[in-house]
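tool_log.txt
---
The assistant was asked to compare two proteins side by side. It first ran the structure predictor on the initial sequence, then on the second. Raw inputs and outputs are pasted verbatim so the downstream comparison step can read them without reformatting.
(1)
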Amino acid sequence: MVKLTTYAAKGGCACKLGPHILQSVLTGVEFPTNEAVLVNMQGADDAGVYQLSEDMALVQTVDFFTPIVDDPYLFGQIAAANSLSDVYAMGGTPLTAMNLVGFPVPLVEQGALTAVLQGAMSVLKEAQVVVVGGHSIENETPIFGMSVTGRVKPQEVWRNSGAQVGDVLILTKPLGTGVMSTALKGGLFQAGTDEATASMRTLNKVACETAQQFTIHACTDVTGFSLLGHSSEMAEGSGVSLVLQTEALPLFTGVIEAAEMGLVPAATYGNRKAITSVAGLDTVKPVWSDICYDPQTSGGLLLAVPAEEGEALLLALKQAGLTQARNIGQVVTKGDYAVYVK
């Protein structure tokens, strides 16, 4: 049986370039733009938005990574759900996808790539997204993902820079995919790793469609830069600070115990090094640092909503099947730090 994780030192979104490294690259490049671009890379948003008409804009994103699980079919499902997530994080509806493939020929000959694509197609069918092409190369380390195009009304785009003082913060999926993927390699914490893989292959479609019935001031999906990385971007882009309550964070079974055992991906330490505008981690149990900096793969949406709508949104999400959704904190006046952890 093919075990894909043996071909990659880092899996899922943990294989991303660190945010501090990426920022040093981007600051040295001038990117073309024009007046039709509503959202680009300047605000650290999840996808680009290009306006076509008064009532129509394209949402465009791309994502790919190395295997985070051994099973090729499951890897395809997770990669597809993760690739679509950025469109949902902008409040959009994904329409088309193109496959991005880098695979060693021996694995292709064993049928692993076919299984990856079959898994990905099962998720696209659920999302009602069509495939219109792709590109492949031979590569020693398996890589798979997708470029995705969606639509959104220009006046209804969600950004990660609109959080307002008084908002509450709703997270729609549990945390700990990085820790659990590390545990998976050692055959540990079976219940938690099963929960994590099920979560990673779950689309953010229901979360997005449910939240569209409410006032969303800001939104991002929580992926490789961790909860603290993405919440810091939201705070800094919005000119506010966020307060996160550790006791409110939803976690997969065994995440705390696994992190205390040191089952932490290397990218956690890169996130910790890069994301410095955080206060309060020295006043909570040390394990929360590993959890809050844990690189997530196909994580949930982080939504900033008016306090008076928070309970209703949370109830609606749970009624829609997202039973692990939680109110994890609030938006406060800008302080010395972007994020305060309590």
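(2)
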Amino acid sequence: MRPLDFGVFYAPFHPYGQDPTLALEYDLERIEALDRFGYDEAWVGEHHSGGYELIGSPEIFIAAAAQRTRNIKLGTGVVSMPYHHPWLLADRICLLDHLTRGRLIFGTGPGALPTDAYVLGIDPVDQRRRHEEALEAVLALFGSEEPVTRETDWFTMREARLQVRPYQWPHPEIAVAAMVSPSGPRLAGRYGASLLSLSMSAAAEGFAAIGNAWGVVEEQAAQTGRPAPDRSTWRILGQVHVAETRAQAVQDCTYGLRDFANYFGGGAGFVPLSDGGDPAQLSDHEFVEQYGASGRAMIGTPDDAIAYVEKLLDQSGGFGTFLMLGHDWASPAATLESYRLFARHVIPHFKGRLAAPKASHDWAVAKREQIFGRAGEAVIGAIKSHAAGTGATRDGA
């Protein structure tokens, strides 16, 4: 099998009450660390309200991150396409593709925060339709040097073309987000895009279940006459924090996991991330233990993380990239240590980097008697020869 790729997906999540300038600097520093540690990808989201997810333009943020990194790919995670005119968006993506020298991945979605759509006067019922209309228009601009004309109830393009073509040929990889509905998998299959599964729960049912999503992609590809999609283009999100011991991992997450869960059940407008009862009656330590035991997150050791990813592979039937959710569950120092431990122990396990050194070591140990014995004899022989020659010289003197 193709080795897995790994990355981190930053909404990002920052509890209010901290300096937003320093929070954004922390995000840049984390992506710099991921680049040093050898991660493959970092993704950055777009949000405009709620006071928790602070990046309003992933394109601007990625341009800054690209100047601080060398190898890591940078994805818009995701651009909310109903909020943007597709011609202007395509033009910005082309610019960013050049500024990153082809390290850009263009992630798209309908927009996830209901408050963003409310401020813009967009009916949530229209968001998925608008996403598809904008995606089709951008693909037309990327795919043709001829003028493109489109007319919808929310944007108009008259003889539009790109004055600068993308840096990557024919264009950056395009990924569509999927959370609960079948909209994302349908678009991925229909337009030949990659799939970005962002469900907050690996145990989700229906179309959010990772065991079902790829079937929708394949079904839509078949209906449009496209070739069978490659699972290596599928990215799956997981919630992870790693420490040397499980007890330390739990203790680390008492720093901020409760704030994160409260946000999801409040300003974000999603289903509360708790398992019933009154979380206020739990201590921070008990809350973290309950959250980890629920199965929606992996809070433990590198070995636990390996088992977690392997379970996701079994559930899904196989995918190409595992993305960890970027969060403030732990302090900055503990978060960076989690990334380091994951890179040291988990990533090489799935990249196939550990088998060859072990095989070479085991071979050398098995050959010890056969090879090292003769090598020892050669050393002893050289010593004796030297001693004999030295003695002869002295006698001659």
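---
observation on (2): The CA atoms of residues 26 and 386 lie 63 Å apart. The first strand starts at residue 5 and ends at 10.
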